[in-house]
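Cast an eye over this sequence plus tokens and walk me through the fold:

***
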Amino acid sequence: MSLWDNYTDLFNPPVNPDLEPLFSHQKQHLPTLWLLGKTGAGKSSLIHAITGDDQIQIGNGFQSCTSASCSYDFPQDKPLFRFLDTRGLAEANYDPDKDIAACQGRSHALIIVARAEDPEQSSVLHALRKIKKTSRIKHLLLVHTGIELIADSNERQQCIAHNQEQFEKAWGEKVDAVAVDFELVGGGATGVDELKSQLTEFVPVLALISDQEEHVNAEENNFAHLKKEVLWYCGAAGASDAVPGVGLVSVPVIQGKMLHSLASQYGVEWNKKLMSEFVGALGAGFGIQYAFRLGIRQLVKFIPLYGQTVGSVTAVTISFCSTYAIGRVACKYLYHKKRGDAVPEDEMKAIYKKALDEIKKFSKNEAND
């Protein structure tokens, strides 16, 4: 019997408080962008540009971490990544040590935000030197903001070059940078696309939720609205599968909760007929292959050294990818069932494979981080 034979438990899972620690574990290990910059440098505007949340302000919607640092999870209900802000850099007698200690263990990238017209960056430079000495930050990006406030192009380039030189000297090596202006006169912005492109190198999930493509039909457009929720379950499944033995139980339950939640979004209730049809459309051997692969990757994680490194990363990647593909094909199936349409098996299999191919290029980076 495969794990998929028990359709009732999988598609309509019971309330399981034992999963809460797994969801908490996922939240504690969210991909994090650590923002470092003076008040007024443009950190709130950067968050607006990335999330599309026009209401968020530093200090409003953020959760305190220390006396002078705070975090903002996005989306707030089922977060996929986090912004971490170090405040008070320009305050008298500010000592960044506590904030650095709180931030450095949780960040995937350090984002320095500096206004191009402001050469006085001593407080940020001081903090940056300390971070360089004490942290293991892999990724660093300098964001020059408010560039269009400097009307003369030559002066603008000189200001940007001056700040670039200051930060590279403090860091001790070349620093990647992007120049932006979030509030052009007359509306609009410049440099935001390049900023997003740079940030997706650090937090790949950003590319998946920043979908700007025009969708060819209503079903694809509908999935675009549910993608954040599917990705949240992907993260939970992947995080739980990093622990030896846990994923064998937790991953199917998390995927089941996802399927139950998606069905509610479409106004469909799983029953035995729909369950059998859904799994059957993916192929007669799908359930057996699913159970076999899940069991094998749990066993691999118990191999000394290899299991705790390569085995765990592989398990996280597979669970992340399979959860996304199952969620994507479920949305396709539920959309058409709600409309009373038939869904050809070949089309279901093609959607599943396409979803796997789409997610694979992002999942390894998520797992390694």
Notes: Strands lie at 32-36, 63-66, 69-74, 81-86, 109-115, 140-145, 176-179. The first strand starts at residue 32 and ends at 36.
